[in-house]
């Protein structure tokens, strides 16, 4: 049976229940300097995904083990959105898988957003609060078994891409945020006044909060 391009989408940590504390000290330092990392579920074994396909765990274990070499050599690249071919286009690379491991039947991954043009777009989407997912891309054939579509032994994993519409349950990435005390941006009371249900008589409270935040910013800037 001829191989076809298989693309699976995963919503990474839609409820925030992901292993978050997986960054090294070096990565945490880089995050404080502006780097962006994502963590979440990248694939699942034995579960029917949004495309109606099921991956056996032994097949995924083999492919994830093979993928570790690319991760170790920092060439486990992925693209922003899914292309329609089996080649990773370097000019469209937006991120790098830096670690991948098993948590039960879930394949977990740590993603570093690159400073490439596509990576900058990805970073802006993340900073804007856009909910993104991750999608595996590979070549393989499928068979129907007891009403299910099973991915066969010839499956070959290519990469993981960033997408907006994942098909695998629970595959939304979680944005890793630096745990560093920094000065807060200037508070804008107009943003709160524009929120539905906020009464005008709350303006005095908003001004008080603004003064407190401004005082905190001055303290932080002074180095105290």
Task: Describe how the helices and strands are arranged.
Layout: E1 4-10, H1 25-32, E2 37-44, E3 53-54, H2 57-72, E4 77-79, E5 93-103, E6 106-113, H3 117-127, E7 133-140, E8 142-145, E9 148-151, E10 156-163, E11 174-176, H4 189-193, H5 203-222
Parallel strand pairs: 3-9
Antiparallel strand pairs: 1-7, 2-6, 2-11, 4-5, 5-6, 7-10, 8-9
Question: TL;DR of this structure?
Answer:
This protein has 224 residues and is an alpha+beta fold.
Plain-language structure description:
This protein has helices at 25-32, 57-72, 117-127, 189-193, 203-222, and strands spanning 4-10, 37-44, 53-54, 77-79, 93-103, 106-113, 133-140, 142-145, 148-151, 156-163, 174-176. It has 2 domains: 4-176, Serine Protease, Human Cytomegalovirus Protease, Chain A; 189-222. The protein has a 5-stranded antiparallel sheet. The protein has a 3-stranded antiparallel sheet with strand order 1-7-10, with helices on one face. Strand 5 (93-103) and strand 6 (106-113) form a beta hairpin. Mean pLDDT is 76; it is low at 14-19, 167-172 and 176-206. With 224 residues, the protein is of the alpha+beta class. The protein starts with a strand and ends with a helix. The chain has 5 helices and 11 strands, in the order βαββαβββαβββββαα.
């Amino acid at each position: 049976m001829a191989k076809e391009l298989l693309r699976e989408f995963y919503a990474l940590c839609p409820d925030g229940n992901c292993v978050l504390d997986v960054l090294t000290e070096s990565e945490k330092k880089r995050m404080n300097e502006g780097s962006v990392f994502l963590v979440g579920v990248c694939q699942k074994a034995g579960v029917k995904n949004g495309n109606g396909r099921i991956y056996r765990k032994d097949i995924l274990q083999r492919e994830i083990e093979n993928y570790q070499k690319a991760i170790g050599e920092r060439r486990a690249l992925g693209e922003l959105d899914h292309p329609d071919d089996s080649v990773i286009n370097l000019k469209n690379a937006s991120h790098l898988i830096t670690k991948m491991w098993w948590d039960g039947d879930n394949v977990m991954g740590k993603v570093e957003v690159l400073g490439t043009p596509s990576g900058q777009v990805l970073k802006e989407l993340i900073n804007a609060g856009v909910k993104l997912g991750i999608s595996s891309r590979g070549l393989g054939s499928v068979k129907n078994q007891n009403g299910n579509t099973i991915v066969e032994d010839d499956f070959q994993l290519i990469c993981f891409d960033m997408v907006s519409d994942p098909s695998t349950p629970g595959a939304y990435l979680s944005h890793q945020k630096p745990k560093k005390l920094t000065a807060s941006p200037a508070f804008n009371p107009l943003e709160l006044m524009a929120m539905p249900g906020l009464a005008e008589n709350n303006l005095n409270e908003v001004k008080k909060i603004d003064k407190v935040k401004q005082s905190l910013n001055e303290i932080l800037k002074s180095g105290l």
